[in-house]
């Protein structure tokens, strides 16, 4: 019997660990509003889409994209066209200054214009997305309106600009605070019509340009707040350094014919709430001169201090959340003490957190609350933030079944 030869097949079988792309954390969120005209950015930059846009009942759509240095920004709303926006320049400026990435949250509304971003009907759409971006810096380059120097206007309505900032903070302030975020705004030219305590900007700060008329003509229309926020967007997860005095390369400014531009006023002695960014006369460079936030008492919470305390607050909350479904016992209170000490360890090792009274480590105590109506675990943390010698006390509460609470006392 003749056997017909059969083709042979060699099969190699191997096991390989799947390659999982590491999700990059958001560091800088930029808010914008634009009408539903022209091309969708989600179609123009499909690889930059973070969340696919979904249409709401009102026809408003939020596009969420993450841009990096590799992206061309020609389709991002800019100064040309019927709806001028600083978004294109601001995204590019932040990336030029070293931001790892910029998350653009662009709200597309049927009749929305960039300067209307502070209106409550639009601002509320940002809250849900921002709540999923803990610890980011938030900017809104168009909140003050169109740049005066570019459109033939030499006067600005500062009261209107302050109302826009206050309105945006009223809509999103709770989200920023609960998500450990810092909002940075460009300041109007005059002092606010209210006391600083009435602005509602506790976790926010204000920036303005200073410089010669020539330097302001080239760069004064840009967002000084974006310059400051780009420095905050670097990978400083534990140690937040001051950037006062550092020379920043802004890139070429805009060539414009009109040379008259309103010169930003010096911060008054009464308020002292406006930070300054100095434009150099030679070259396209600048320096940050101050970096105070509006958290009271004003003058005691600089950006590095606030960001460091926000980072501590966040890690403590995450550690405490692991205990919300555990029994209220003495043993669990000891375990909570250990978990909180471990959460603080990166800050202790970095040398930015010490105990009170010269102790090398923070003091952490915890106890069970055996109240039948409201059982839970309670903890206290006493520490000093260096090198600013800022004393902080955190009260941690764990209520079974609910998210842990952390209060700064």
Q: SS-based structural class?
A: alpha/beta
Largest sheet: 10 strands, mixed
Q: Based on Cα principal axes, name the global outline.
A: globular
Strand content: 15-25%
Q: In angstroms, what is the radius of gyration?
A: 25 Å
Total beta strand runs: 15
The sequence of SSEs as H and E is EHEEHEHHEHEEHHEEEHHEEEEE
Unreliable spans are: 11-23
**Average residue pLDDT:** 83
Termini Cα gap:
95 Å
Tally the helices: what do you get?
9
Number of domains: 2
Question: What share of residues is helical?
Answer: 10-25%
Brief summary:
With 409 residues, the chain is of the alpha/beta class.
Structure description:
With 409 residues, the protein is of the alpha/beta class. The chain has 2 domains: 28-301; 309-408, Nuclear Transport Factor 2, Chain: A (Roll), CATH 3.10.450. Helices cover 24% and strands 21% of the residues. It is built from 9 helices and 15 strands. It has helices spanning 41-44, 87-96, 120-123, 127-130, 158-178, 213-219, 224-232, 303-321, 330-349, and strands at 28-35, 49-51, 61-67, 102-109, 137-139, 182-186, 204-210, 247-249, 274-279, 285-288, 353-354, 363-369, 376-385, 390-398, 405-408. Strands 2-3-4-1-5-6-7-9-10-8 form a 10-stranded mixed beta sheet, sandwiched between helices. Strands 11, 12, 13, 14 and 15 form a 5-stranded antiparallel beta sheet that branches. Helix 8 packs antiparallel against helix 9 (330-349). The longest helix has 21 residues, at 158-178. Residues 11-23 have low confidence and may be disordered.
